[in-house]
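Um, can you check?
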Amino acid sequence: MNTQRVLQTLDQQISALAAAIEPVGHTPTPQARFDSKLFRTHGTRLRDYLAEVRQNQQQLADAVAEERTAQVAFLAERLVAQIAALQRELATQRLRKATVRPARDGQEDIYHRLAQHQDFERRLLAMVRDRESLLGRQESLAQQRKVQQELAALEGRLQRCREALARIERTIERKERGF
């Protein structure tokens, strides 16, 4: 597949993504949704992230025109990851709306947070195992480094998740003791 066709395909995917984001892109969320390594944007609206995708698309087109192959490879990989992340976020919008409901009391909310963090921990552990197995299959040193960096980031997230779980469990324990 030639470069122009790849750029054209990316353009079509970004246009479709923009159309999907349009109805919900202005709605702010309580916090940023994406890892800072994936997006430089720290906004709380999907349209902010879409703007960064479009900027990266332009940079990719410029790099292709100037035949900077290393930058083309990097930008293309980043752009594909950003598009996939936004598509996943859009796919979960309905689920987020369905799970966001007012708690009857603080007790229900804390147990919901506990279950949520336990699910996060389970998924992070699965991602760590996946990256560890991927690391053993990498042939080049550059690929190994990349997977090692991803693994380190995941392990950091897992550690923070476990710390949050411990805090939630202590809160539950205090509430159950009546403090």
